[in-house]
Amino acid sequence: MRSALALLVPLLLAGCATREPPFAPVAQVDYTAVGHDPFWMVTIGDASIVLTLGAEEPGGRKSDLRTHSVPRVLPRTDGTVTRWESGEGTAVIAIEARHGPCTGARGLVYREHVTISLSGRQLTGCGGRLVGRGI
User: Fold this and answer.
1) Using CA atoms, how far apart are residues 70 and 92, in angstroms rounded to an integer?
2) Neighbour count for residue 75 (Cβ, 10 Å)
3) Can you give the residue ranges of every domain in the chain?
4) H runs (alpha helix) in the chain
5) CA–CA separation, 95 vs 24, rounded Å?
6) For residues 125 and 56, which has the higher predicted lDDT (pLDDT)?
7) Residue 7 to residue 24: CA distance in whole angstroms
8) Are 76 and 97 in contact (CB under 8 A)?
9) How many CB atoms lie within 10 A of CB 99?
10) Is residue 49 within 8 Å of 93, Cβ to Cβ?
11) In the record, which residues are listed under signal peptide (predicted)?
């Protein structure tokens, strides 16, 4: 009985070690924003701006995520609008966050309305601090 238990413990521990780590595109997160139709998420960290785009078609898999990463730049603020712009050539990303409540998916309310432009494509969503739940 003891030998069976001794064999079972390592197997159980090995099963625990196979869990996938949570998605974290940058080490130190300074700002995040999300949108849907299609899903997208932007994360601004200490060294980079990472835009993650979901599948274009309904029913897409997690493996269909595409990531664009550019060097982080300091934001420019003009009144209630904050802008980041980084990249080169056709891979320029522009992020604009406008202060004011923004209701996102599932009724979550964020601090800002966010517009992202990447290679002529425009995405809209919400970002900044989560401030509550809508009705």
Assistant:
1) 8
2) 16
3) 25-133
4) 2-16
5) 19
6) 125
7) 35
8) no
9) 14
10) yes
11) 1-19
Predicted TM-score of the model (pTM):
0.74
Report the C-alpha gap between 18 and 94 in whole angstroms. Answer: 37
Under a CB-based contact definition with an 8 Å cutoff, are residues 99 and 111 in contact? yes
Instruction: Give residue 56's pLDDT.
Output: 67
CA distances (Å), origin 40, targets 17, 34, 36, 54, 115? 29, 6, 6, 6, 11
Q: How confident is the model at residue 26 (pLDDT cuts 50, 70, 90)?
A: low
Nearest residue to 43 via CA among 63, 22, 14:
22
pLDDT computed for residue 5 by the predictor? 44
Cβ contact 12:6 at 8 Å: no
